[in-house]
Amino acid sequence: MAILLMIIDLAWALFAQVTLQEAVREGVRFAVVGQSDAAIRQRVTQYAFGFVKDASSAGPVGVHYFAQANPTVELAPSVVGSNCAGNIVKVTIAGISISPMGPLWRSAAALNLGAVSADIVEPGVQGSNCPAR
Q1: CA-based R_g, the chain, Å
Q2: Residue 12 Cα distances to 6, 101, 102, 104, 114, angstroms
Q3: Which of 31, 83, 99, 103 could lock 108 by a disulfide, CB 3.0 to 4.6 Å apart?
Q4: In the chain, which stretches have pLDDT less than 70?
């Protein structure tokens, strides 16, 4: 019984991690075509299969933009054109906790999961006007 519960716990953790990774990938796909931050967070929440419940800016989903010339410095939301074509968008999920179903051989402490994905914002749909963040 202990081995069966361990296998179920391992599968549950793997499922949760893969789901979060797919959610941020979908968020980046959505972001590269010039969507607003709120729409990106909503899309990630929609694809997170219930692991992410808060789509607000204070929630676990982060949307960050970086200049392609200097990808180590984040562009603030107040910077005009921070989400224009050519910049890098990074979507993150952090601090998602899942508890084991049968903690027989290990502690009952929750696992903290997160995921990150990034890509370059495409030119096209938004033209020369960048959408509001």
Answers
A1: 18
A2: 10, 9, 11, 15, 15
A3: 103
A4: 103-106, 124-129
Closest CA relative to residue 61, chosen from 33, 32, 35, 39: 39
Is 46 within the bounds of a domain?
yes
DSSP E strands: which ranges in 2-43? none
Q: Which domain range does residue 66 map to?
A: 2-120
Q: Is the overall model pTM greater than 0.90, yes or no?
A: no
* Continuous segment of H or E residues that includes residue 88: strand 88-98
Please report, to the nearest 10 degrees, the dihedral formed by the alpha carbons of residues 86, 82, 46, 118 taken in order: 40
Structure tokens at 80: 């005009």
CB 36 within 8 A of CB 132: yes
Count CB-CB contacts under 10 A for residue 71: 13
pLDDT at site 104: 66
pLDDT digits (tens, 9 = 90+) for 99-109: 887 766 667 78
